């Protein structure tokens, strides 16, 4: 296939740069598995009269030149040839483990009021007396939880979620109090804070990912994911891993990047001289106005 880039202002309804794609499944042997990029951004002429957003056009000579660039299939300043896989990448999801500490301090207990699982205890979808009874039961549960947490050591910071859950359940059992999953989740959320020195939280024996630390990386198809992780990620976050179930394959053709030509900035002396000249002109204009 081929992708030809054209300058802006080439079409009536849009002023943006445009591209022409040539796609076929009947390539000759030399073109199979290849993508040819042709940069036609400098091949145009100004129209004598613009037509809406269209101010540029291709002359027959421009069309002939671009056609030859395509047909010759040779690399040069305006032609780049790549393998199909050069444009492919895998978008990987990089996870890091959730690490939390827990404390039954007054400040953290107060955060319960912001937890949805806690708020739902005093809400009801029922009507009338049934709704009132359900809300009252929820209020009793809230008071019981507050009493339970109030009896815990407020100073101790627990760095193991597993041990803290055991402690909560043991205290709840003493009070014949049931900690439903949504309620337990609300309590753990309110009483926890991220702590890189804490024990890794696990689910069924595997590290639980911290969604706030989740990141994404694009790995070229031409490179192995393990090699990429070893070079780009693990030296900085050695506890990271890839969730392979979330990996997606995509393709991108960064046309402009492939034809970018670096232009070094002008010498500082030249820029400074220009600034001084402009400052002189401004002073002269101010003098005329203030005179």
Task: Write a structural description.
This protein is an alpha+beta fold. Helix content is 36%, strand content 21%. It has a four-stranded mixed beta sheet with strand order 2-1-3-6, with helices on one face. The radius of gyration is 33 Å and the shape is elongated. The relative contact order is 0.14. The mean pLDDT is 93.
The succession of helices and strands, N to C, reads EEEEEHEEEHHHHHEEEEHEEHH
Distance between the termini: 68 Å
Binned, the helix content reads 25-40%
Which spans have pLDDT < 50 for at least 5 consecutive residues?
none
Mean pLDDT equals 93
Q: Which outline best applies?
A: elongated
Going across the major beta sheet, what is the strand order?
A: 2-1-3-6
Strand content: 15-25%
Pick out its properties:
single chain, 291 residues, alpha+beta, 4-stranded mixed β-sheet, 4-stranded antiparallel β-sheet, 9 helices, 14 strands, 36% helix, elongated
SSE layout and pairings?
Elements: E1 2-6, E2 18-22, E3 34-39, E4 45-51, E5 54-57, H1 60-72, E6 79-83, E7 88-95, E8 100-102, H2 106-110, H3 116-119, H4 128-150, H5 161-174, H6 181-191, E9 192-194, E10 202-203, E11 206-207, E12 215-220, H7 225-233, E13 241-242, E14 248-251, H8 255-258, H9 268-290
Parallel strand pairs: 1-3
Antiparallel strand pairs: 1-2, 3-6, 4-5, 7-12, 7-13, 7-14, 8-9, 10-11
In short:
The chain has 291 residues and is of the alpha+beta class. The protein contains nine helices and 14 strands.
